[in-house]
Amino acid sequence: MSNESPLLVIVSSPSGAGKTTLTGRLRRQVEGVEFSVSHTTRRPRDGEQDGREYHFTDRPGFEELIRQDAFLEWAEVHSNLYGTSKTEISRKARGIIFDVDHQGARQIKSQRSDAVGIFILPPSMKTLYGRLKGRASEDAATVAARFAVAQEEIAHYGLFDYVLVNDDLEEATQKLVAIFLAEECRRNRSARLAERLLAEGRGFGGSTPPPAD
Ligand code: ADP
Ligand code: 5GP
Fold first, then answer.
1. Is 61 inside any structural domain?
2. Tens digits of per-residue pLDDT, 67-104?
3. How confident is the model at residue 3 (pLDDT cuts 50, 70, 90)?
4. CA–centroid distance, residue 94 to ligand 2 (Å)
5. CATH number of the CATH domain containing 102
């Protein structure tokens, strides 16, 4: 693991396209990748734990955090407030995943241009609807509302560096892992190591081999 700062990965999609599933799989395959845990005013789904999936907050509590300037970004999504606290970006990790909508993605990118944006698309709108319904964690009205704003979310795909189609789950996971590993190898992320090696080489005369231990 390098001692560079964490790779910041923004993952967005229309609801139900597979962000949670794919990023969970990425974390199981690449050690040291953490989720940014957002605040939200939406109610927890079955199985969600406060502090793990989200910090579940009431509206007045969330508005107080806005007043305190505690958020790196925040937005209203599906009639609830969601926000990333500034403290999330300073996690000590190999990578940090920000699962945010397009508004959040834009705000994070504007402050951290080195963040990598990945947009996940379903193979078809029919499949998206089926996945939303199949998740069974929301009632019919919530599913319908989320499907209705899917078009708007998809219209923002142009904000992102990568677009990943989540059709076959295994193939999509491999692509996400490949993007993460390739982004870690960007030249600017290794500049410090390269400079250190050059300094080390100069320390023992440049072209001569290092002294034996
Ligand atoms: P999001 O986090 O983007 O809202 P989820 O990860 O919760 O989406 O996925 C929505 C539903 O679709 C879940 O029930 C998940 O198990 C299912 N799903 C995700 N990816 C695939 C896939 N490639 N093939 C089939 N089902 C999938
Ligand atoms: P869900 O309620 O399904 O967990 O998330 C609904 C939407 O809110 C998703 O598009 C998700 O990416 C977005 N979201 C989750 N956390 C944040 C956040 O901290 N900021 C923003 N802007 N969007 C978020």
1. yes
2. 999 999 999 998 999 999 999 998 899 999 999 999 99
3. low
4. 22
5. 3.40.50.300
3-class SS at 121?
A: strand
pLDDT over 70, % of the chain: 97
Q: Does ligand 1 come within 6 angstroms of the Cβ of 20?
A: yes
Question: Is 143 within a domain?
Answer: yes
- Contact between 16 and 124 (Cβ < 8 Å): no
- For the stretch 41-45, contacts whose Cβ atoms lie closer than 8 Å and that sit 24 or more positions apart, written own/partner, are 41/80, 41/81, 41/82, 42/78, 42/80, 42/82, 45/137, 45/138
Nearest-CA residue for ligand 2 atom 11 is: 100
Cβ(141)–Cβ(30) below 8 Å: no
Looking at the structure of the chain, the number of domains it has is 1
The amino acid at residue 132 is L
Which domain covers residue 138, as residue numbers?
7-186
Tell me the CA–centroid distance for residue 135 and ligand 1, in Å.
7
149 located within any domain: yes
pTM above 0.85, yes or no: yes
The β-bridge partners of 73 are 84
- Among 27, 120, 135, 153, name the best residue to mutate to test ligand 1's pocket (greatest count of ligand atoms within 8 A of Cβ): 135
Domain annotation covers residue 194 = no
